[in-house]
Amino acid sequence: MLRQLLIENIALIDKLELALGDGLNIMSGETGAGKSIIIDSLNFVLGERADKSLIRYGTEYAVVQAVFDEYINPQISEYLDSVGIDAEDVLILRRKMTVEGKNECRINGRIATLSILKGLTELLVDIHGQHEHQSLLKSANHITLLDSIGETKLFNCKAEVQKEYSNYTSLKRELGKYGNGDERERRLDILKYQIDEIERVNVGEGEEESLLAQRKRIRNTEKILSALQSAKSSLDGYDSGGIAAQIKSSISALNTISSFDDDIPALNDRLNSAKLEIDDISETLSDMLDKLDFDSRSADKLEDRLEEVRGVLRKYGGNYESLQSFYENAKAEADMLSNAAERVAELENEIIKTGKSLSESAAKLTAVRKKVASEFEKSMVRELGDLGMGSSTFKVQIESAEQIDEIGENGADKIEFLISPNIGEPLKPLAKIISGGEMSRFMLALKNIVAGIDGIGTMVFDEIDTGISGNISAVVSEKLCNISRNRQVIAVTHMPSLAAMADSHYLISKSAENGKTLTRVDLLIDDTDEVARLIGGNDYSKFAVPHAKEMKAWADRYKAGLK
Fold first, then answer.
1. Exposure pattern of 99-117 as b/e (b: 16+ CB <10 Å)?
2. Least confident segment among 73-87, 109-123, 211-225, 501-515
3. Which of 51, 163, 227, 507 shows its CA 20 to 30 Å from the CA of 486?
4. How many CA atoms lie within 13 A of 330 on its CB side?
5. CA 545, 494, 19, 6 torsion-angle sign
6. Are 232 and 242 in contact (CB under 8 A)?
7. Using CA atoms, how far apart are residues 310 and 207, in angstroms rounded to an integer?
8. Each residue of 375-413: b (16+ CB within 10 Å) or e?
9. Which of 138, 131, 143 is nearest to 440 (CA)?
């Protein structure tokens, strides 16, 4: 239940704290006092769309906080768990919007998206206003409503239909993979080409990296080969310009003067040692050159292989692992298609059998729905009669699909609510015939029937009494009171009989303070004067107040009779 509503900087509201009670909470006040602002604020914190015009003029942001207790049911627990929020004793929802248009939503202090907030609040609060009937006017929503009314009776049948539908669609999807005979042949040709190409190229694990490393070595080998040849030529050369030849010349020259100087033989020994070292280096360079004999054809072959490997990898996944995965999947699909005729025949037989089971399950669901619809029709006619629409005829039209492929997980039925408000008029869809006042009563009759089914703890009625007056207003008041015995009801009203039924009555008013117009809300200890104001009359105190007291006494007697 909604226990507290904190509003800051919304329209004419500066700061407002509203504590709400069990049962029937009534909000009333003069036209323009700001009753709609309270509902707009509630809609805002519940996740409805809002724009910056909601923010009070001259302020930077608007904030609304709602506190719920006794809110847990299996659906809410499951939803909170699915979004990673722990259920606590109280549930605090907070939403803030700035003039820049930024939204911040929190659930028990945790940041949440607007869609998560909306998904939660749809399980907490049901709001119905004079302009909030659009979902009921859409026939697509009627099957959901009927199924919620007959949930316990329909549960097993719906579960069976959903199971059969899942099996049927699964078989159809598998059959669809095979296509027809021509499609299978074309697909098989493509797969065989891809498989043959992968097998022909036969890429090894890590081969691309190995080829790249080899190419790098070959490209460096060209540089090394040039350097080695240059070095060897400098050492021995092919003429007298080589270092070895020059050393040899130096030794010969020194030998001619060795008899004239005792130091010459020692120098020749050193030159001979240097020549031996140079000759050894030259031989080593020769060995290296032999090993690095460059073959341009081998390099071209390597480049061709690298391009081939890279081409296959690009076509089938980009890396070796993806290539292997593609190959395995292609082989499996090719095997499947190669043996398709037998499996297709099996699937076609299974689809026929499963389709028959699905049709039978859907027919059972339709039969139970018709029983639920019949009971619902009687209840609606009775409720509408209580609300002054006794001449109305209400019908749940059920049209069932004849083709198996028109059956869905909800069965074969298309459902639409039809009504004839007056004797002699044909049944027509709600949207085409029902007036505003009639729609309000229809909605109230519906809610009186489904109260407690959906498990939602708080219901809000924003001037649902529009177009209702006279004796019917007393019946409407009783209906709303009935609903409020099992759940919290918040109702904005101009109707004195409904105000008299209040368990808690809040007066909404506005006043000028410091040059600003502000809305305020007061919980009335004695609401006799407000009920009298709603009754109206030329002589306010002489007639309206006694009438208000009588009306409150009638309301007290009615509520006492419900306990």
1. eeeeeebebeeeebeeebb
2. 211-225
3. 507
4. 21
5. negative
6. no
7. 10
8. ebbebbbebbebbbbeebbbebebebbeebeebeebbbb
9. 131
Residues whose CB is less than 8 angstroms from the CB of residue 72 and which lie 6 or more positions away in sequence, other chains included:
87
Judging by beta carbons within 10 Å of its beta carbon (0-12, 13-18, 19+), is residue 291 exposed, middle or buried? exposed
- Virtual torsion, Cα 531, 537, 538, 542, nearest 10 deg: -60
pLDDT at 182: 79
pLDDT in tens, 527-562: 999 999 998 855 556 788 899 999 999 999 999 988
Which residue in 399, 405, 381, 400 sits closest to 391, CA to CA? Answer: 381
3-state SS, residue 490:
strand
As to burial, measured by CB atoms within 10 angstroms (0-12 exposed, 13-18 middle, 19+ buried), residue 278 is middle
Helix (H) or strand (E) holding 311: helix 296-315
**Single-letter residue type at 237:** G
The two beta strands, 428-429 and 413-420, are antiparallel
Residue with tokens 């719920």: 68
Torsion over CA: 516, 517, 521, 524 (sign): positive
